[in-house]
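Re: zinc ion structure - here you go.
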Amino acid sequence: MDDLQYGTRNKRGDWTPNRPVEPAPLFDFPPRIKAILKWLPHYFLPWNVIFAVSAVAYWAWIIPPVESMQSIRLGWIGWLYAVNALCVLLFYGAFELHLYVLRRQENRFKYNGKFPAEQRSKAFWFESQNIDNILRTFLSGVTIWTGVEVVMLWAYANGHAPWLSFAERPWTLALVALAVPVIHEFHFFCIHRLIHTPLLYKWVHSVHHNSVNPSPWSSLSMHPVEHLLYFATVFYHLILPSNPVVMLYQLHYAGFGAIPGHVGFDKVEVGENGLVDSHAYAHYLHHKYFEVNYGDALIPLDKWFGTWHDGSPEGEARMQQRYRKRKEKLAARKARMEARGATK
Ligand SMILES: [Zn+2]
Ligand SMILES: [Zn+2]
């Protein structure tokens, strides 16, 4: 596959897509029906279908009977942790093995020409991005994921969360299921913006940003506080008219859904000529520039707040202008304070 048909590679070996990232047309005003219809398959395929099907499979085969979840017992909680850990190992591991260990598509479509294993850094535990990221994923990531899941299942089992049946309220549940990615985007943007405030960034979010060149294991490499905020997205289902399966879809959208954004490749080659879009470029730019793209543009929140970078030269210019303005503001404030100090 010739990735130079789709983008360019610079001297450092970094690949950049030709086309800028387009925000989803879902919230455009006036509505662009044709654009929405053209975009709609991407809303489902392939990622969201995987997360939704995995939720159904969990409900069918993994989640214990409701009666046993009425009380908090180590047995079923340990079982859930084990299954979640195994699924993460298999799902994340498949991307890692294919793209980073066996390097089946070498550096085709890879945003950053370097592979994390080639660079050691003191920012990471054991100076290794991979070891650091894997430990954080399983120590706090899967643990807090499971903890949040247990709280929700316990709440359903004890009648503390609205539980609609698919037989009686199929349309309501279909609507809530359709809104799952939108809920995630809204929640993620809010908590992400929050942890980019100076104090929380230093204390919490810098852990995730240590991976400037993200790879699959970076997806859930976060500070435990960020894990908690991130997975708290399922708590919306404590008030929404919902169902445990839809809640699990929301949870898997966060847990397994973190991976496409951190895969580091724009497209994953499948077979001879197949290409699957990762839609990772917006979030890759966030890891590269830190203060752009707090969301993934399903809702154009970054556009509305002026932090959108679509990868184009115009996007770059907008970002530089924002940085310049902020610098000027800081310099002006400093000058004012100095002047005030001099007159005292
Ligand atoms: Zn990230
Ligand atoms: Zn961030």
